[in-house]
Design goal:
By secondary structure, the chain is mostly helical. It has a single domain (8-86), classed as lambda repressor-like DNA-binding domains (434 Repressor (Amino-terminal Domain)), CATH 1.10.260.40. 68% of the residues lie in helices and 0% in strands. The protein is built from five helices and no strands.
Length: 88
């Protein structure tokens, strides 16, 4: 079954939640993540709040910094999107 995954804001929020979950599991602060991924200090917060969407290059940097496969971000984002859709 095909799902229509809403607008950009919903996708940004779903990705942000996935990032926050993974970062918390790895016990990495936003500041530490910014250092590890060589981001501006504010960028992880902007991602987690759905204010920014990562490029593919940024996704690879996040994956490397948190030592998780890129597919984990995609999988969790899809799960969060479905959860958002079902709770509307």
């Amino acid at each position: 079954m095909q799902h229509e995954y809403g607008g950009l804001l919903r996708r940004s929020n779903a990705f942000g939640l996935a990032l926050k979950e993974i970062r918390a599991e790895k016990e990495v602060s936003q500041d530490k993540l910014a250092i590890l991924a060589e981001f501006d200090r504010t960028y992880p917060s902007l991602l987690e709040r759905g204010k920014r969407t990562p490029t593919l290059a940024m996704l690879f940097r996040l994956s490397e910094a948190l030592n998780v496969p890129e597919s984990e971000f995609i999988s969790r984002t899809k799960t969060n999107l479905l959860r958002f859709i079902l709770t509307e």
